Write a sequence for this structure.
């Protein structure tokens, strides 16, 4: 190794296995200042890949291989290990000492745009600190923030300007926090800071410290950031902070909590920081578990269908069933169908999920028919997004044909939405599905977005309007809700549509709905959703109704 290499490579000086100092390059590369290494032994920082090295102390192994490159792992100040090539030479200044030189073979801890450590580096450091004994473990806080609407900067100014902004922001963060804290860039425009209680202050003082640092981050957005070529960029930040009183088992749990708070902060239009809470964290953890397990739950048919009876309000006789999905998760127990249905849309599985439910229902109807029962019409929920899909009608036809389920025993309930992308495509699909013999209902009518123009265009193929439960809840106490429902029922009469009320929970609601002219209803007042085996008794009664009619 020549003198130039010795000057440029990180190096430490060792005497009897104890570190005596390091050069500037070592400090810059691995984060240790010379005074920080006092009392360290070489084995505290360096391990070797060679199996033979295990029977020697670190310095003994190097002394046996003077001037021979060895491969090992070096822990930097933040406790992530870097693969290095190591060369040991006897010191030319003091013969009792050895100089150890390092060449980094691979460094996956550095972000290429900003030069900052990355998220992997933070996880290594945080997990190390979280595993320390309570007496040695410092108070910790993780701050994660993202630059709001950063993508617009790349689109308008170009990626070079975007990268310069990230690099400049990284330098400002390092200047703000100094060497005492680990500042990282995760990805895109998301940064993180690991705040450690180096001074062992009280909990109150530590909270004040973290709060002040978060406010300082937000204050950075009060003025535009100046870049080269006279470019000024004004962006807000969404800042999340880990819960200071929580006892996190791992950095992963800490990061999830912090990101949850960051997403809460993003709901505000100006720079804001929010501390995580256990409630928010649990909700996000549950969401992540559901997203991970949802595809498998469909593949293994872990999501099953229960059926809620629907009745004629005047005769109290069964007139239909609604299929409602149920998922008993091995870790989360029962999951609300509204929750996992919305996740299905978010992750793009709504189409396959809707068809999965339809297939299960068709198979169940055919089973009941084969068992000799007359079966009332069964309704299935389908999103507008699924109806828009080019393959929808073809796939529905295949399910009907394969299951041999009579199409006239199936009713598709469609929920209104503002997010219709191709109205003509959707209307054509509804008409084609109706042509198969399937009935069509509009679900949740009267809440949120109600497209009267869509109802007008489709009234000749729609069979039913379903009143949402939220309209029924205050029916007996709010005159305006009564009038609202009465007008919807009148609309149904004008268009020749049946009207069914969902969510009926007591007799007064049922009686008043009947007075207002509503013919059909369902809800806990009648029955809760039941598994298929328990629906058999309802089918037996329905069988008698059919016989008496004849």
């Amino acid at each position: 190794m020549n003198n130039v290499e010795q000057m440029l490579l990180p190096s430490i000086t060792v005497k009897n296995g104890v570190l005596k100092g390091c050069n500037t390059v070592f400090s810059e590369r691995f984060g240790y200042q010379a005074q920080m290494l006092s009392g360290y032994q070489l084995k505290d920082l360096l391990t070797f890949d060679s199996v033979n090295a295990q029977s020697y102390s670190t310095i003994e192994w190097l002394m046996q291989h003077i001037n021979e490159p060895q491969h090992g792992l070096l822990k930097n100040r933040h406790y992530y290990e870097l693969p290095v090539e190591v060369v040991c030479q006897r010191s030319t200044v003091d013969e009792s000492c050895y100089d150890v030189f390092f060449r980094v073979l691979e460094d996956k801890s550095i972000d290429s745009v900003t030069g900052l450590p990355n998220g992997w580096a933070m996880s290594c450091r945080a997990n190390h600190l979280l595993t320390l004994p309570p007496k040695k473990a410092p108070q910790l806080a993780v701050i994660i923030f993202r630059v709001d609407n950063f993508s617009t900067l790349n689109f308008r100014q170009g990626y070079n300007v975007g990268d310069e902004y990230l690099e400049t922001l990284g330098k400002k963060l390092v200047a703000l926090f100094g060497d005492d804290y680990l500042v990282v860039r995760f990805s895109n425009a998301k940064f993180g800071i690991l705040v450690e209680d180096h001074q062992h202050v009280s909990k109150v003082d530590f909270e004040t410290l973290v709060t002040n640092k978060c406010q300082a981050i937000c204050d950075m957005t009060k003025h535009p950031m100046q870049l080269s070529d006279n470019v000024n960029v004004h962006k807000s930040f969404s800042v999340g902070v880990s819960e200071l009183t929580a006892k996190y088992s791992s950095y992963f749990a800490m990061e999830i909590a912090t990101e949850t708070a960051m997403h809460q902060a993003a709901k505000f239009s100006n720079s804001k920081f929010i501390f995580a809470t256990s409630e928010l964290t649990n909700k996000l953890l549950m969401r992540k578990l559901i997203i991970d397990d949802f595809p498998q739950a469909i593949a293994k048919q872990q999501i099953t269908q229960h059926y809620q009876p629907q009745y004629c309000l005047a005769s109290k006789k069964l007139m239909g069933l609604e299929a409602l999905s149920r998922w008993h998760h091995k870790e989360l127990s029962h999951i609300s169908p509204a929750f996992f249905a919305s996740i299905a849309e978010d992750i793009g599985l709504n189409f396959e999920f809707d068809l999965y439910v339809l297939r299960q229902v068709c198979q169940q109807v055919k089973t009941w028919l084969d068992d000799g029962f007359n079966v009332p019409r069964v309704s299935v929920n389908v999103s507008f997004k699924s109806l828009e899909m080019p393959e929808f009608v073809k796939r529905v036809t295949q399910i009907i044909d394969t299951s041999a389920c009579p199409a006239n025993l199936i009713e598709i309930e469609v929920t209104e939405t503002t997010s219709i992308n191709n109205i003509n495509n959707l209307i054509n699909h509804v008409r084609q599905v109706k042509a198969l013999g399937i009935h069509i209902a509009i679900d949740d009518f009267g809440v949120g977005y109600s497209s009267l123009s869509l109802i007008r265009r489709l009234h000749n193929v729609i069979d039913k309007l379903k009143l949402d439960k939220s309209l029924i809840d205050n029916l007996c106490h709010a005159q305006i809700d009564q009038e609202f429902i009465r007008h919807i029922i009148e609309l149904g009469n004008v268009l020749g549509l049946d009207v069914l009320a969902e969510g009926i929970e007591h007799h007064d609601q049922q009686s008043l709905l009947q007075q207002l002219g509503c013919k059909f209803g369902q809800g806990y007042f009648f029955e809760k959703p039941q598994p298929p085996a328990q629906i058999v008794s309802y089918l037996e009664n329905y069988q008698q109704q059919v016989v008496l009619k004849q």
In short: The mean pLDDT is 89. The CA atoms of residues 304 and 326 lie 5 Å apart. DSSP finds 20 helices and 22 strands in the chain. The chain has three domains: 3-104, 119-276, 286-543.
